[in-house]
Write a structure and sequence with these properties.
17 helices, Rossmann fold, 434 residues, elongated, alpha/beta
């Protein structure tokens, strides 16, 4: 199937050809015709499946074909959970609309709003926004959502995880009831289904891949290692593999900063990206990583869904996420658009339960690889596992052994006391005294 057969016009075909697109992905094949028909869509799509083009291409075509006032009110709103994802979508929309009479801009927090307000005043057809900054500018009277025709909620599950439900409801109240709604989510939790029920009107369900699945060309590996040796193992893997572009995930901002310093100290160019960094620093780090000026980008989960790096070969979980679904989102940064990729996890003893949860979610075992020089940690992990299984099977026998051990200890104590007494008072002396 070709993009032309989906009903897209020549201006869009020319733009996507320039982007190197040849054939539509499964999510694009299923979503584009339905959106062009004017129907609401509830879509399940993993990262790296081409969903941005899936919703933006038909929306741009419909906006281009309809008349609009000269002052260009905002007619399409794309809501995203993170600044990085908002910026990425804006880049894509700008590229797709290069030959159309459609304008787009992006707004998010972390930067001064003056330039964003100025762009909106010039007239904007498509607005890409994070919820907080959108509500802030609307409350200042800098924008209006009364002419919205299209609403896209991208990474809706992530927005709910980040506590944006109240903001989303507030934004809904600012828009006309009659509009086309597109909701994209990696998972269909109860909360997502409830949100969809309140927003969508007789939606068409579009599923590109089963929930919580990873790209087929991504290989998984688990490296058992003691917590204190993780940095050393990571540095060894990077140097021995001569890896040039690696995305590393940590659970905390502090750990991201600490690991970045260790990498730099070992002459490996690295940068950290997380919520405490200014938007300028985050943009600079991401740009340097994309341009391969920086070899290692250390990120918290804020970047799990907002990064789009073509042909990223390696994603490493320095620390496993405590929510198994986040593993899918993290490693979704590699193996994108059918390319091959590697997802590696450095797993300490206390993270074994996270591995089991991830394997249960993916319905597959993660292969384990041992690295020379780190075997001690491996043996500890295995022995703990075996010990646990044995104790579960022989709980009754263990209790019996404990009772026998206690009895033997008492007997030994009495014997020792008797010997001490005999040594102090020999039998001959006792008889004389009597």
């Amino acid at each position: 199937m070709s993009f032309k057969s989906l009903g897209l016009q020549n201006a869009l075909l020319k733009a996507i050809e320039k982007q190197g697109y040849t054939n539509p992905s499964p999510i694009q094949e299923k979503a584009i015709p339905v959106i062009l028909d004017g129907k609401d869509v509830l879509a399940s799509a993993q990262t790296g499946t081409g969903k941005t083009a899936g919703f933006s291409l038909p929306m741009l075509q419909m906006l281009h074909e309809t008349k609009h006032p000269k002052y260009r009110p905002i007619r399409a709103l794309i809501l995203t959970p993170t600044r990085e994802l908002a910026a990425q979508i804006y880049e894509n929309v700008s590229a797709y609309s290069a030959h159309l009479n459609v304008r787009a801009t992006v707004i998010y927090g972390g930067v001064k709003p003056a330039s964003q307000i100025a762009a909106i005043k010039k007239g904007v057809d498509v607005l890409i926004a994070t919820p907080g900054r959108l509500i802030d500018l609307e409350s200042q009277g800098a924008l209006s959502l009364k002419r919205i025709q299209f609403l896209v909620l991208d990474e809706a599950d992530r927005m709910l995880d980040m506590g944006f439900l109240r903001d989303i409801k507030k934004i809904m109240s600012l828009m006309p009831a009659k509009r086309q709604n597109l909701l994209f989510s990696a998972t269909f939790s109860k909360e997502i289904k409830a949100l969809a029920k309140g927003i969508l009107n007789e939606p068409v369900l579009v599923e590109a891949t089963p929930e919580n699945t990873t790209a087929t060309k991504v290989s998984h590996k688990v490296f058992p290692v003691h917590k204190s040796q993780k940095a050393a193992l990571l540095i060894q893997l990077i140097k021995e593999g001569n890896w040039k572009q690696v995305l590393v995930f940590t659970r905390t901002k502090h750990r991201a900063n600490k690991l970045t310093k260790k990498l730099i100290a070992n002459k490996i160019t690295a940068a950290a990206i997380h919520g405490n960094k200014s938007q300028l620093a985050r943009t600079k780090a991401l740009s340097g990583f994309k341009n391969k000026e920086i070899r290692i980008l250390v990120a918290t989960d804020i970047a799990a869904r907002g990064l789009d790096i073509p042909l990223l070969p390696h994603v490493i979980n320095y620390e496993l996420p405590n929510v198994p679904e986040d593993y899918v989102h993290r490693i979704g940064r590699t193996g994108r658009a059918g390319a091959a990729g590697e997802a590696l996890s450095l797993v300490s003893e206390e993270e074994q339960e996270y591995v089991r949860q991830i394997e249960k979610l993916l319905k597959q075992e993660l292969p384990v690889e041992l690295v020379e020089g780190f075997e001690v940690a491996n043996n500890v992990v295995k022995e703990e596992s075996v010990t646990k299984k044995q104790s579960n099977k022989s709980r009754g026998r263990s209790r019996s052994r404990r009772r026998n051990t206690t009895t033997n200890q008492e007997k030994n104590t009495k014997s020792r006391n008797r010997r001490r007494k005999e040594k102090r008072y020999p039998k001959k002396d006792i008889k004389k005294k009597n």
